[in-house]
Predict the structure.
Amino acid sequence: MFTHIPVMLDEVLHYLDIKEDDTVIDCTLGEGGHAYEFLKRLKKGVLIGIEKDREILKKAEERLKEFGDRFIPVNANFSEVKDIAGSLAGGSVNKIFFDLGISMYHIKESGRGFSFLSDEPLDMRLDPDGSLTARDVVNTFDEKKLSEIIWAYGEERFSSRIARFIVEYRKTKPITTSQELSDIIKRAIPKKFWPKRIHPATKTFQAIRIFVNDEIDILENSIKDAIDVLKPEGRICVISFHSLEDRVVKSVFSEKAKGCVCPPDFPVCICGRKKEVKILTRKPVFSGERERAENPSARSAKLRCAEKLSDAQAQMQGGNNSQKVIA
Ligand SMILES: C[S@@+](CC[C@H](N)C(=O)[O-])C[C@H]1O[C@@H](n2cnc3c(N)ncnc32)[C@H](O)[C@@H]1O
């Protein structure tokens, strides 16, 4: 009944360190695989599960119904995490989790053209009410824009050629299925340059999906907002699946872990910056060999975690001049 295997579950449970009366937000509920294990540990606490796709949310609700009203499903974008914490948890929570991207459900069951291996209508929307589909993108965007998207969100070196082949093809007929798009991409990339470990259409499909669902642009502010709503000593864990996502997570964590940046010879801090978090994973944590063998999706996963500092801790750990006071 459930298609998705939760990635890096042991590592996530270790770093989140859920206590029985915590309030937890799972920002990417999916089929509720991680959430199920969180709720098992939340004997008295509550889990708020945010999910953009109302179809997969139904599956999670079915899976998690045994936890009664300790599970609160929310069909929303995680960019609303601050408002959601405000209305459902009094403004602050103990733990927040992001498991970015799409679920195996989307690839194997949704029928929305996420996979280059299946022949399905080219849609790729996670939110069925979203205004833009993958079909709109490949049939209406000009060649330059297509090439930019495929390069920016897929880091595909043949982005210009693929864009040109897409535009040529659609002069004869609209591109309507995932199979058609996959075949165009295969023709655009010279065979001797086909990647060895992944399908030649992987990067382009990723790029179009990211663009359709606005996955990268909302990420920075969403993670900042999530850190804002953490209680002192609260923890945030984020799993990312490609370098674009990981770069954003790393940069937000580093920025929030930086204290005062005034020159050391300043008598007092004038920048006003305070350390907000302590990073728990200096380097990203990768899945173990066994998990990677059993679950290929885990191969590209990177986990980063941080802990929110209290005001007193921030003062202690502050940075160049944070402890200097005017005499
Ligand atoms: C990797 S899956 C999560 C899998 C989940 N941890 C599990 O164990 O079943 C990511 C989920 O996040 C959802 N999602 C992606 N972007 C979102 C967003 N901006 N807001 C809310 N949900 C989002 C996707 O629809 C997908 O179901």
